[in-house]
Amino acid sequence: MPLPPAILPPLRPGAVIHGPGSHGVDTLLDGFSAELKRRGFRVGGLVQRNHGPGDDCAERMELVDVATGHAYDITQRLGRESQSCRVDPTGVAEASQAIRNAVASGVDLLVVNKFAGLESHGDGLSDEMLAAIAEGIPVLTSVGSRYLNEWQTATGGFCDLLSPVADALWRWWGPQRMYQDLMQGVADADVRRVVTGDKWVLVETADGLGVAARQAPAAEGAAVGAAEDTAQRWTGRGLRDLAAMAAQSWDPLEIAVGVAALNAHYNRPDVTGVPGNGLDLFASVEGRVVVIGGFPQLARRLPRAKVIDMNPQEGEYPEAACDWLLPGADAVAITASAFANRTLPRLLRVSAGAEVAMVGPGTPLTPRLFDYGIQSLAGFVAIDREAVVRTIAGGGGSRDFHPYGRMVTLHRPPHS
């Protein structure tokens, strides 16, 4: 019986809380929505942009439709001595059409510049905002601290209060969305080969070859040629189509093929980074280091690390220990298999505040992952493709195909 497709978890409305003045928050929401839109997410709604003083020494304010770029002037020109609110309700009402259009199209995210004076009295954009929440559309807005009680009343407390920093917005957006994010970044291409070995699978295009570990080994005693027959399931499908399985399927083999397709795009021969083993990143860490998954030569490289594994050996911890060992850890190294078996989002949430690295040949080498709480990525780039194909088709593991490529490490830039 086929499994239902994976669906994204719902998001409670997110409210960025700020003190007097909102210029920094306006820029934060503008930048976040622009970045998600650049990555392929469907983003709608309104962001606010303020421009230098006009003739009456007041800033000109406008609401910009995220989807179309159309700007609505919302400034009341009351004269330089006026102390009244300078927001023009007529301009806000006109701009509200952008929100209604976004809700009707079922966007991935609705951004509403703020819940402020007008909204606190049930006017402004409050009706459109609450209608979107009722439709289950993720809503992100900002709320001045003076209007926090009114916001809580309007939403019935069904919301997440966010700090005015980018990392808080990405944590709210959630690591489950990294799969869709990576899939959307894949440029479509013809797939040359899909090989499903006993331990690993690979996807190859003209530009690259990606690998991923099988989460369920091939059936013992499988007939000769069964791997080739299985791979025929994906014959004729494009790279982006295969990559979508990493985001949408629950079948372990389909997910592995989807991850390999992602890596065929991101782990191309032209990717540049630091050579070496990803575990060496934490060799000098003095605090608690936790490693998820067994790695070759782990005891030599990180002798003080606490190791968690699904099949723990002597001195290692079971999977249930994640909730005890990861909170408060200084550094966490996570096997790339956690990305493929869908446990990575939970591990990232529990590891919040730690320096996190994803390590292993199946790691996608893309900066898109940095915003989801990962600081370093160590993955595999195939050089001798035919040798990698022969090795995986013959049932070999990562140690066997490792000599036919290079390990590359990417680091999150310090300022991001």
From TrEMBL:
Gene3D superfamilies: 3.30.390.100, 3.40.50.11590
Name of a matching Pfam family: DUF2478
SUPFAM superfamilies membership: Dhaf3308-like
Residue ranges of domain DUF4213 in the record: 179-265
Domain of life (superkingdom): Bacteria
Occurrences of domain Putative heavy-metal chelation (ranges): 286-409
Name the record gives this protein: DUF2478 domain-containing protein
